[in-house]
Write a structure and sequence with these properties.
Number of domains: 1
CATH topology: Multidrug-efflux Transporter Regulator, Chain: A, Domain 2
Order of helices and strands: HHHEEHH
CATH class: Mainly Alpha
Number of strands: 2
Radius of gyration: 13 Å
CATH architecture: Orthogonal Bundle
Helix content: 40-55%
Shape: globular
Strand content: 5-15%
Low-confidence stretches: 7-15
Distance between the termini: 29 Å
Mean pLDDT: 81
Strand order of the largest sheet: 1-2
Number of helices: 5
Length: about 90
């Protein structure tokens, strides 16, 4: 499922995507992009176009555990994929 179909997906029972937090591959599938594209987008600053809303899970090592909240991603897509810094302002209002 691609993000351009977010309106239609909201009308379904949501079985097209996994429950809970999404991993990189889940987000890539939703956006119809490669995992590599997601990895590159995660390196962008929050105020840059193409930045992604995400959460980082605590870890003891040097590895980064990044997850995505499906409801947040759907809203971000619905609003036209704004930079994360702009999106956070829109969500707080």
């Amino acid at each position: 499922m691609c993000a351009d179909k977010v309106e239609k997906q909201d009308e379904t029972d949501g079985t097209d995507v996994p429950e809970g937090l999404w991993r990189r591959k889940d987000l890539a599938e939703f956006l119809c992009v490669s995992d590599r594209w997601v990895d590159r987008a995660l390196t962008r600053a929050k105020d840059e176009p193409g930045s992604l809303p995400h959460v980082e899970l605590p870890t003891n090592g040097s590895r980064r555990f990044v997850r995505f909240v499906p409801e947040v991603i759907r809203e971000w897509a619905r609003l036209g994929f704004p930079a994360v810094a702009d999106f956070e302002g829109l969500v707080e209002e």
